[in-house]
């Protein structure tokens, strides 16, 4: 137990996600163990266990729990050791991943969000996460290669640097598009890249350019 009164609410959320097609028990367990209210402003805490995206300030959102769980399932398929997340935001996706992979690196371009996310993960005793304030279009070269990269904002086009930072056999999970976006899974093989469309999604944009 971690002292949050809401753990049964998180367990209920995990049950709801299993009803909408999330099958990986490791992912459902991580959702059940993670108090999503900690990642929201107090005024929104009562909505924390609904299966919806919610505002986190600075024009950004905490993603819908279903899509967090779905992307985490995709990341886990190849049992990755080192994972890179682009778009730390509230830190909720990072907290779920940190429970399931040995090493997580996460990049965010808005400093205030990064600071809050770091505090939240510390509070949950998750210490296997490295944080970077930077532009996710550049990935995080000094820690590459990664077994998986997950991007939690929609890129107008595929950032080439990210596939370069994948290990052979690694996968990039990324929403691509503007008004209409698709979640793509791109696997790096010995001979090149293999691309698969997972499903239609709706994310805030992956900003291309200077830091906030
Ligand atoms: N994974 C987050 C989702 C946050 S929304 C969560 O669980 O809450 C997407 C985040 O991507 C925002 O915080 C936004 O600031 C960040 N972002 C957008 N463009 C970025 C870029 N180029 N580099 C790094 N972060 C970026």
From TrEMBL:
**Which keywords has UniProt assigned to this entry?**
Cytoplasm, Methyltransferase, S-adenosyl-L-methionine, Transferase
Q: Which Pfam families match?
A: PCMT
PROSITE patterns, A to Z:
PCMT
Kindly state which reaction or reactions the protein catalyses. Answer: [protein]-L-isoaspartate + S-adenosyl-L-methionine = [protein]-L-isoaspartate alpha-methyl ester + S-adenosyl-L-homocysteine
Gene Ontology molecular-function annotations: protein-L-isoaspartate (D-aspartate) O-methyltransferase activity
Q: What class of enzyme is it?
A: transferase
GO terms in the biological process aspect are:
methylation
The compartments listed are: Cytoplasm
EC identifiers of the protein = 2.1.1.77
**UniProt entry tagged with the keyword Methyltransferase:** yes
Q: In the UniProt entry, which residues are flagged as the active site?
A: 63
CDD domains reported in the protein's UniProt record: AdoMet_MTases
Q: Which family does it belong to?
A: Belongs to the methyltransferase superfamily. L-isoaspartyl/D-aspartyl protein methyltransferase family.
Stated role: Catalyzes the methyl esterification of L-isoaspartyl residues in peptides and proteins that result from spontaneous decomposition of normal L-aspartyl and L-asparaginyl residues. It plays a role in the repair and/or degradation of damaged proteins.
Q: Which PANTHER family match?
A: PROTEIN-L-ISOASPARTATE O-METHYLTRANSFERASE, PROTEIN-L-ISOASPARTATE(D-ASPARTATE) O-METHYLTRANSFERASE
HAMAP family cross-referenced by the UniProt entry: PIMT (MF_00090)
Q: What is this protein called?
A: Protein-L-isoaspartate O-methyltransferase
What species was this sequence derived from?
Shewanella corallii
